[in-house]
Write a structure and sequence with these properties.
The complex is a heterotrimer of chains A (285), B (313) and C (392). Chain A is mostly helical and 285 residues long. Chain A contains eleven helices and two strands; from the N terminus they run ααααββααααααα. Chain A is globular, with a radius of gyration of 19 Å. With 313 residues, chain B is mainly alpha-helical. In chain B, α2 crosses α11, α3 crosses α10 and α4 runs antiparallel to α10. The chains are: A mainly alpha (285), B mainly alpha (313), C alpha/beta (392).
Chain lengths: 285, 313, 392
Amino acid sequence: MIQLIIGQLLNGAIVGSLYGIVALGITLTFGITGIVNFALGAFMMLGAYFTWYGYELIGLPYPIAVIVAVLLVATLGLVADLGLFRFTRNNLVNGLLVSIGLISIIEASVLLTWTSTPKDLSYVLPGSLRVGGILLPKIKLAVFAVLLLVIASTYLALTRTWIGRAAFAYAQNPEAAALMGVKTNRLQTIVTVYSTALAGLGGALYASLYSLEPTIGAYYVLKAVESAILAGIGNTIGALVGGIIIGISEGIGSVFLPTAFRDAYGMLFLVLILLFKPSGLLGSK
Amino acid sequence: MMRFVPLVALACALAAPLFIRSDSTFAIVTFGLLLASLAVSFNLIFGFTGQLSFFHAASFGVAAYITAILVSDYRWNFWLAIGPALATVAMLALVVGAICFRFKLREFYFAVVTMAFSEMIRLVVVNWNSVTNGTLGMTVTAQPTLWSPSGPVALSGARVWYYVALAVLVVTYVVCQRVLASWIGRCFAAIRLNEQLGETLGVNVFLYKLLSFVIGSVLAGLVGCFYGFYTGFIEPQYLSITQSLDIISMVLLGGVSSLFGPVIGGLVLTALPHVIDLTAELRIILYGAILIFVILVMPRGIFGLFERPHHAV
Amino acid sequence: MIIRHLTRALCAASLSVAGGMSLHAQEMVKFGELEAQTGAINTYGWMSSQGTRLAVEEINKAGGFEVAGKKYKFDFTQVDTRGEPREATVQFRKMMEDKVPFVFGPFLSNIFNAIRPIAEQNDGKFLLMGGATSEHDYLGKAGSSYLIRTWNWDAGPEGFGTLMVQYIKKLGAKKVAMLFQNDAFGKVAVDIYKKIFADAGIELSVDMFEPGTKDFTSSLAKIAATKPDFLFPGYTDAILYDIVRQSLEGGYGAKFFIVRGSIGPALKNKDQIEDYIAYVPKYFEEAEKTEPAVKKFIEAYKAFYKRDFPYDQAPLCSSSCYDHVYMLVEAMKKAGTVTEVAKIREALSGMRYSGLWNIKYDSTGEEVISFNIAHVKKGGSVEVQSVDPTAK
């Protein structure tokens, strides 16, 4: 029993870190541009399909395929920002609607190009490690490590570099930041594109774990929004923590309770946190 | 000028069946009218009080289920069944609204928490097999009847349902209009424009937010009661996030700053997929493009194009 | 819309000129298909739509078909329900209004439930040929003479489900764990298989998950603790790939039992699985080498759609698809009418068709079809058992 629980805690953390990377994008975009970009789910899905295409059809080594996919997604993110999201800054509802329109376009394009037949990558890193009676798939551990690394570096970049500090300052007080010489437009575009790249990376890594369908984005983006809010929106490390908490509560919930209510376990937790600590688990009061 | 638009539209709507020949056109328009009612009721909460609720699908779906269950399983009269259905929706809305507003959840947080409640209710509906028949959905074969001197007349046929849907829209519209024209509406506007200021001026923000949320949700429930009987089939998808998003799109497309805008939005968005003659994927791409175009190029919706800007409180 | 009508009119005009003003003016037979081509569960509808279109184009290109001395072509419309009942009811109403006498689909149970009331109102005017499992309950009932179910039934003495359960019983299965999507078909499947397993004296446990779930590790761990002999996972390939992989990587079980899905997941994990028993309407990889009809179909598909042949999805062409179009044409010829649906239904019931599959219908209008049960073993060898209940 203990083994079962420890195994699910670990797995929940790994699954949750994938929510976390998209959540980080959600949090950053929201902090700087004031919108919740649901299209990050669609960008994640694109990242997964691009990786599949590069790795499976062109035959690139997996890490290269991932990098290429992330760059491609980031480019599309730039196009979307300049063409669409630039006009929805600080308008939550319009941003939401534009991202819904964009999701339809991206999903249908993928469907048109690659049909609905599920894609499944040849295993990048097969096999599992046995740690004290618990089998952990190697690929999941590798993905977890990369995600932790990326989220930690993002945190460092935000606190240690000029652009990061500018972003941070802007999120705290836009007017003061502008007065201090932060170029608002450029900062917003950089952050939006970076968030898209994060989602693309999430998708690229996702592709090595699960099968691909054009509809996967919606599921992950909802979990990501939950995760972002859970820990307190605007909090970099919090996005990861939130994702992991959601992942674990789903995992442990499904072990002891019916799997059918799996999605509710995380949500229930979220509602309770929001009610009793509206700024989120890690947010300051 | 704009004041007469709804009346002209109503006159046209009353006369329309003279010109509609096809059953499927009736179906599209009837769905359009019902969804338009849903959009109008949603706009009371969203456009006029400034609260982005994701609870609308749940109100709509719960009422549809309760009426259908009371009529099919317990042999209630349809019109009597509307009572408990709306009472339940009112209670749910009261509880959810009270929690959200008591804890002062705003904007995005309010949206997410109402979405979470809505999803949890959907999961209960999906898994409460013995009552709701779970994911298989319920077929509703009973038909509501109307009293007439020569005995009860069943509501059936495309034309009759068209008028029923129109009546639902008119009721929803008039209720919203009455509420907005009264002092309640002014309190809603105060909350929308500046919550803090409203509070200092003595508006009980909690109470009026709750009132808006409950009225809007109950009206959504009313639509749900009829919708289920019109389609003859109810399934948990009625309570899905997609349903809520559809409603929001309708409101924004039609125009958020008026009562009549959502009516246009509801009708247009329902008809759109059936009017565009394209392959499945291209149709969805076009749909997305239209949505983006409307938001970016005409942010005040279709109705906003014809309306002079006004911001009467 | 207008453009399409115009081109259609022009085509018709040019055809009649090219045909040298033949005495038999070309007449059209309306034919519709109602399937989910996009949306979350579209693999079934997608394959059916592809196969049906291919058959229609072939027939029309060859100049149509002749019934009672007259030449006809198909006027074919495909609509996409996206798996949404509301869309489907409007689209279906439109078909009824356009007096479409033959409708293919739907494969999804919730769509059939939604359109059934409208279909019953039009009983006698058309034939609905779909694979939805929920259709089974209405076959042969009053008011349902429109209904023909184009997939074989899991249960019953010749049902593939029954045969497969007997098969794993012989392999020593005493306990099976079902992990299924919590949706319309998932629920029907649970009802069907609870009974089949109970009759076979095998213990069945059921756990259901929300469609869209990707990580099943925790559910699998929970199930593994009860030590079932076989795992019986959901019904779309995407889910099968995920469940099979996660079950193997986590060491939760290596024996699988599949009633709706391909053997792709087994072949991908061929060295880790022990047994993978799947209902495969046809094992195309093998059949391509031995059956000329299958080879011809695959080549025609590649030429028409200019893409690779989807071996994984092709078995789904067993429901309201390529064969069924040709079978319908033969039935019309036999009945000597393109309008009297009751006669055509009778002709369909009385015939046995050999195409990609051997197909006939039982007295209620449910399909009886030849099929394969594939047993993939460790290492990837596939043992295919062919069953042909139509031969009787």
